[in-house]
Amino acid sequence: MTTPSLIPIRLARACCFCAGLLALTVVAADVVRLGFGQAASIGVAGTGLALVLLACWIRSPLQFRAAVVTLSVLCGLFVAEMALRGYFHLRAPADLLLPDSTDVSRLRFAAHPYLIYYPRPGFRSTEGTSHNSQGYRGPELMDHPSLRIVLHGGSSTYETGVPHDELSWGPQLQAILRRELHDDRIEVVNAGVPGYTSWESLVNLVFRTSALRPNITVLYDNYNDVHAREVDPAAYRSDNTGYRKSWDELEFQKLLAAQESPTLRYSLTARFVYVRLLKYSVAPTFTSLDLLTRARTANHGKGEANVPHNPPIWFERNVRNFVAVSEAMGAVPILMTWTGRGPESQPVAEHNEIIRRIAREHSLPLCDLASSEAIRADSSLWHDPIHMNESGVKKKAETLARTVLLQQTSKHR
Description:
The protein is α/β, with parallel strands linked by helices.
């Protein structure tokens, strides 16, 4: 006769054994199609096998209690996974699907035939960053503004340290100018793109922002051009191919898939908790794209010893061409010196001096941000050593606004 104490143990063994066989049967027959995929099917099969082994393991009351806890947890996770897959796959509209971190259509940037990449039109982030339909950070452009200013540069122009559009450089500068000049038709367009050097900013002006017919073009390049000088001297070329290379979306997908956590890739429960509840992003990152567009000889961040052997001749050439193109299309170019937090490095100082010299030679408005020791020394203005936070961006906007207001005042004299 079976003793009462053995009944729960045998019942638990039977439940584990049946659940394990059911999981294995589901995978083998492939009767439930809720977007499992090959790797997820392997996971379900592994769970089923573990349950069968658990059934064989139960021999004592202590093992019985451990099995009940394990089975409860697994059943809960299984139910949650099935419920989420059923909801998102069968009922939820497409815009509610959890983002796929290998889906390049969700990437902040898109491939461009002449710029390598540019801001993906229509992009929206959960942090408050957006791109308009033309691929510029911020809202849609105005029709026939009274004064249009276009900002060019890298991440310090795009403002990666400021996630909310309304607190970034362009809107803060626009608000100041509208208030001071009593004109709500003034528009500031942010054409900055993280990772851009003066090469990309020049091409950006020629092929993209010139079509906006700006009244004023602003160039805020410097730091990324130092990285372009870190290449081996033999690879330091006029077209920057020693530092840059093209990319394709298939290669990028492979890179993202290799970087992503398998748990987030194959479990909707884990992805739901991570993205929806904890508010973390699994969207492809700019860092991944930046790595993918560097040439084999780039030496990014590792070639400081090469910089003195690669003089900033191409940076100067690019800045001069930026000025020439701007003036040829009837815009006033404003050059800005660049600054980061802390002491100014020698290569950055060289670039800033080139900017000052070109501004003097062409009698151009100069916003000499790098001359402000107070801004460099105030750690409360910086998101990191390179990028400002909201308070720092406000200071930068106020500094550039003074230059623009002086230019506008002198124009009307």
